[in-house]
Write a structure and sequence with these properties.
CATH topology of the domain at 45-155 and 175-181: Methane Monooxygenase Hydroxylase, Chain G, domain 1
Subcellular location: Cytoplasm, Perinuclear region; Golgi apparatus; Nucleus
Distance between the termini: 69 Å
Shape: elongated
Function: Acts in combination with TSN as an endonuclease involved in the activation of the RNA-induced silencing complex (RISC). Possible role in spermatogenesis.
Subunit structure: Ring-shaped heterooctamer of six TSN and two TSNAX subunits. Interacts with GOLGA3, TSNAXIP1, SUN1 and AKAP9. Interacts with the homodimeric form of C1D following gamma-radiation. Interacts with TSN and C1D in a mutually exclusive manner.
Order of helices and strands: HHHHHEHEHHHH
Helix content: 55-70%
Largest sheet: 2 strands, antiparallel
Oligomer: single chain
Structural class: mainly alpha
Protein name: Translin-associated protein X
Family: Belongs to the translin family.
């Protein structure tokens, strides 16, 4: 029986060999330097966690409003008045920048690298929206510096862009806030832009616009060439987007080829069908390979 007790369910637990006269938690001196230090650590970690969660919510709002701006801009291909939609999109982007101002205020005095993961999704979507609007206006790519200039805010301007840069001392008096888009956020946002431009081509062809697909095709080729220089040497997220970018470029180029070869013999109202069929064939070929 003693053997069973030693090897079965009645075996002694390891801590049974220790004396039972250990101190209870209530006997711990809460005013000791060690306890005070750990209490300050707890407060700091709680504050940092709360800030992180607030930034995640702001990033979600930025993402949603940026997507709505992109959806609005897609209406330009069928709208009679382009300027009206561009003006409305600028109002929406101003609202997004108000959210980014709140992010800048939350990050004041903090290391942005510790909170970058919480806000990167929203910043990428904002870059995509603002670069899409810029392309529609100018048929060119907005630079990272231009984007960052729009993210300098002053409290007197209710968060609008400060047109006159000032010194650090004056910045503190004026209550200036700023947030800089990182190169990775910029590249990922531009990579996502290519997908929206491919959709813009489909909508343009459907409305009988033959010029826009060729303009977009040339632009996408330049963007793809730029990303090719980065290749696998850049961040993993950037190189992962390169495949999707290549797909968008292939769809637009093959559709432009079909339009160039058969565009003169096909009525304009049927060009969209040619475009759609061509992209479906490309998708099937990519699926096989």
């Amino acid at each position: 029986m003693s053997n069973k007790e030693g090897s079965g369910g009645f075996r002694k637990r390891k801590h049974d060999n220790f004396p039972h006269n250990r101190r209870e938690g209530k006997d711990v001196n809460s005013s000791s330097p060690v306890m005070l230090a750990f209490k300050s650590f707890q407060q700091e970690l709680d504050a940092r966690h709360d800030k992180y969660e607030r930034l995640v919510k702001l990033s979600r709002d930025i993402t949603v409003e940026s997507k709505r701006t992109i959806f609005l801009l897609h209406r330009i291909t069928s709208a009679p008045d382009m300027e009206e939609i561009l003006a409305e999109s600028e109002i929406k982007l101003d609202g997004v920048r108000q959210k980014i101002l709140q992010v800048a205020q939350e990050l004041s005095g903090e290391d942005i690298n510790q909170f970058h993961r919480a806000i990167t999704t929203g910043l990428q979507e904002y870059v995509e929206a603002v670069s899409f609007q810029h392309f529609i206006k100018t048929r060119s790519l907005i630079s990272m510096d231009e984007i960052n200039k729009q993210l300098i805010f002053t409290t007197e301007d209710n968060g609008k862009e400060n047109k006159t840069p000032s010194s650090d001392a004056q910045d503190k008096q004026l209550g200036t806030w700023s947030l800089k888009i990182t190169p990775v956020d910029y590249l990922l946002g531009v990579a996502d832009l290519t997908g929206e431009l491919m959709r813009m081509c489909i909508n343009s062809v459907g409305n009988g616009d033959i010029d826009t697909p060729f303009e977009v095709s040339q632009f996408l080729r330049q963007v793809y060439d730029g990303f090719s220089f980065i290749g696998n040497t850049g961040p993993y997220e950037v190189s992962k987007k390169l495949y999707t970018l290549k797909q968008s470029l292939a769809k637009v180029e093959n559709a432009c080829y079909a339009l160039k070869v058969r565009g003169s013999e096909i009525p304009k109202h049927m060009l969209a069908d040619v475009f759609s069929v061509k992209t479906e064939i490309i998708d099937q070929e990519e699926g096989i390979s």
